[in-house]
Write a sequence for this structure.
């Protein structure tokens, strides 16, 4: 079992991911989804947390050798980012979706020197909207975004196109395709449910039709 499959199995084992075709979950966007992924649950399991920390650090080292700091994307990416930064012994900050309305009105929390080469840390990538908001926040404050690392991606075409358009590379530890295969092999879902969630990955807005 490779690391992509291993994380998918961990997420299923600790119930960070829930799959339900009959009673879909409603996302903030209004999308009715047969999958709900809450990677914050990872923080409660030391062995999974340690796995994620080390492998996020490996993604950073392997794909972004010219970067000099990590920045977590609020809120779910903050903890994963700080763990990876601590493992790498590199500077760290985090990025809000938008500037605060009060106080210093910061969008970047922590010290990010101008022209820093930043890699953003996200817990999961769905449409890519929140990730690209964070990219804009870093750029506005004088940083340069090398790319994004994340625990998980749904693999939506919409997200890939959005990142490609902005020339922002991203790399994830696991993905929806692998997770659904692991779920099928472990009898977490049956063949009919597997087929339904594959339709969701291809067409998230109309998979039930």
């Amino acid at each position: 079992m490779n690391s992509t499959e291993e994380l998918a199995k961990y997420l299923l084992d600790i119930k960070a991911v829930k799959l339900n075709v009959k009673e879909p979950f409603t996302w903030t966007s209004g999308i009715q989804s047969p999958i709900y992924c809450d990677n914050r649950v990872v923080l409660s399991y030391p062995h999974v947390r340690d796995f994620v920390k080390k492998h996020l650090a490996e993604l950073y080292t392997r794909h972004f050798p010219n970067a000099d700091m990590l920045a977590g994307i609020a809120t779910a990416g903050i903890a994963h980012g700080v763990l990876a930064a601590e493992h790498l012994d590199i500077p760290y900050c985090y990025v809000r979706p938008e500037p605060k309305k009060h106080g210093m009105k910061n969008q970047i929390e922590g010290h990010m020197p101008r022209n820093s080469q930043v890699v953003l840390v996200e817990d999961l990538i769905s449409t890519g909207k929140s990730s690209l908001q964070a990219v804009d926040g870093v750029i506005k404050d004088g940083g340069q975004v090398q790319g994004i690392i994340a625990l998980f991606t749904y693999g939506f075409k919409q997200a890939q196109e959005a990142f490609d358009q902005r020339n922002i590379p991203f790399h994830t530890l696991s993905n929806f395709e692998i997770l659904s295969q692991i779920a099928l092999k472990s009898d977490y879902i049956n063949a009919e449910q597997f087929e339904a969630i594959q339709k969701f990955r291809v067409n998230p807005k109309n998979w039930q039709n």
In short: The beta strands are 17-19, 25-26, 32-33, 35-37, 69-73, 92-95, 108-109, 117-125, 144-153, 170-175. The helical segments are 3-13, 46-63, 76-88, 129-140, 157-166, 176-185, 191-202.
